[in-house]
Amino acid sequence: MDNAIASLAVLKVNWDYLKKDYIENFIPFIATLIKKYNYGAIDVNTICNDFRKEFGLVIPYHPMCTILARAQKRGLIDKSYDTFKPNKNKVAQFDFATTADEQIRKQEKIIKEFIDFAKREYSVELTKEGADAAFISFLKDHDLDILFASHQSTVLPPIKPSNEKKFLIYKFIKNAHESEPQVFEFIVDIAVGYILASAILYDKFNKFAGKLRKINFYFDTRCILRLIGAEGKEKKDAYMEFFKTLLEEKGNLFIFQHTYDEIMGILEDALRRVGSPLYDPSLASPVLRYFVENNYKSSDVERFIVNADSVLQENKIIKVDAPDPNKYKYYQIDEEKLYGAIVEIYKEQNPSFKELEKRSAIQRDVKSIASIYKLRKGRKPKTIKEADSIFATTNSGLSYANKRFESSEIGEDHNIPACLTDIFIGTLIWLQSPAKVLSLNEKKIIADCYAALQPNDTLIKKFLNEVEKLKGEKKISDDEHYLLRTHRVAMELLEEKTMGDPNNFTDKTSEEILEEIREGIKKEGEEKYLKEKEHHGETLSKLDTTEKEKEGIERNIEKRAEKISAIFGKILFVILVIIFILGTAAQFFPDFLNNQRLLRVPLILITFLLGLLSIATGFNIKGLRDNIKIVIKNKIIRWLIGENTDTEKKKKETV
Predict the structure, then answer these.
(1) pTM: predicted TM-score of the whole model, two decimal places
(2) What is the pLDDT of residue 270?
(3) What gap in Å lies between CA 353 and CA 9, rounded to an integer?
(4) Where are the chain's structural domains?
């Protein structure tokens, strides 16, 4: 186990450097063993044992024969009669030490950082062996997704990690993704290396080699639910990348109508239950649990339902009916036996599996797989190119059950199964397209981390039982009872406080979680108040500045209007004085303007009216000038800053 992680990283380095198939990646390892142990002759069992001792990876007899055959092809091994002997000159050309040492240093650095993280964040003292085991447990969590078609279990050494160690490693990976890109890059490398190593276990893996062009993929319910985002953003990102890659590979994407109906049923059930006080997270589907814990409203769920068809269209996924049973009778499989094989596998994986609760879902899966056999029309594809139609599922148990059923019923052990896991399909793609490896695996690892950092069913049931007990004893209110059952933070704190281990749950855990939620809400409220207060102060400051700026502009406009109106006033005053003088002269001097009657008469009338107004009202030319100045000034102001200025001023004066 000591060198297993570094060896996986070396496999990834070999793959990047050699740019050949997964078998070629093992050739430098074989050269290193030959150098170190100086074999006189090649014994497969001996090399298997030495490989495990030196590199920490378990390569069984037959896969090792495949590697040695490639070594012979590369000239590292010569065949003399029935004996295989090393070619020392050829072996000497392989310099493996530098790469291995570098990856070992990286491994030691990452393991140390993991140990420090566990101690700093959770006060857990990990040994180097414990840290190594935690990393290996992370890799082994998805063994069946990749190895369902293999007779071997895994290349990794056997371990029994605790729930605590699993929790710590997933937390560490999540933290690395968020803040330590170099650490996360190494983690991706060992994950890729593990898949490369696993590929050697399936001696017929080569039959999967080939482009996926024109292959018809039919997807199960959870593939689509994850694609539309109904199980969280991380899953959505991973599946968007997966579907995008399949389209780039020119695959044809479909979904059976009965699968689509099941998806709509799950979403509509979530719509009915999302606000229910009777919500029970231990019985809820992953979709409903995601909606409730993230405080989704009915309107939010409705958007998922409305947008589902758009997501299918964007990803070029076509809805189709299952083949007509009457038309394809000749290709009908024994659906009862397939159903039995699925139930058998589920019970092996989970002894407490309840068949009745899952009967409808299993029957739909049986219908989907049976449809693939009908679409293949009796063909038994030996290569991926001949497969024609494949049912893609997130459920490794279902895929494994189909493989077992196919081996027993059809009698062929080397066909391309009707049902493959999405992870296996993704692996097929990037084993042949190295450029796609990072985008596919990075998103998958993050999605796996978020999924793994959710409390398991046993832990949730313990928590809910304690919450019901607190409510029965009136230690918590109805609102607090609902909060503990539905709030996302409650589930996060449950996982944090127990580190994912039901044995760490105590009768105080629920009360501690409630207290932390209360403090969090209180702190959130205080922070919100302070932000609003700060924002309010900033708004007032901006408003004050704006008002001052506005007042300054208005003062400038008023000054300009004052100057313009004064000029007009002076001109008007001079004109009126001249009219008054000329009019007076015309009255007292009959000969003045006698020849200009059209001018003389109006002047006399205007002078007479001005004099009359002066006697009756006290009118004078100076006062008229001043009034006209005010009118002109206001007109200019309204024209420059808008017609509402006077109204606003009047309102302010009234106030």
Answers:
(1) 0.69
(2) 92
(3) 37
(4) 1-203, 205-452, 457-507, 517-654
